[in-house]
Amino acid sequence: MDKYCTLLFLRDGDHILLAMKKRGFGSGYWNGIGGKIDQGESIEQALVRECQEEINVTPTTWQKIAEHDFLMDTDSQPWHMFVHAYVTDEWQGSPVETEEMAPKWFHRDSIPYDKMWQDDLYWIPHVLDGKKIAGFFTFDQANNLLTHDVRHVTILPGKIPVGK
After folding, report:
1. How would CATH label the architecture of 2-153?
2. What is the separation of C-alpha 138 from the centre of its chain, rounded to a whole number of angstroms?
3. Helical ranges in the chain per DSSP H
């Protein structure tokens, strides 16, 4: 199953907003804000919609920081996810908890990587330092990281398709 998604991190100086996923895919993990790109929706439209739905905030500007290709290596139900990741320091509204996400601000030196997807440790510090990242990650059925390939790029490859 191929899935195309967005991921957005709100940033305020040396602080980054993460949200605890409360239900569905990724529940129990701290993550950025985002989700599936719906049919006929642009990446940017999905980015704004997901942020409004998940934490009641509307980003007004954003910068693309990464493209990731995720693969779960399994015989029964493999999944393949393409993620367009962004950061913003301008938005309208204040982050609030919803049925899906519980947002919290973290200083960049106290990001809870031990309670996040295992790939995050390999790329988030780089994007917080202003680098652009192209990543490829594989996971097993228990969401354990099997392999990772993280590359600093000056221009994002643009090879990850937009939602169908």
Report:
1. Alpha-Beta Complex (3.90)
2. 16
3. 43-55, 120-128
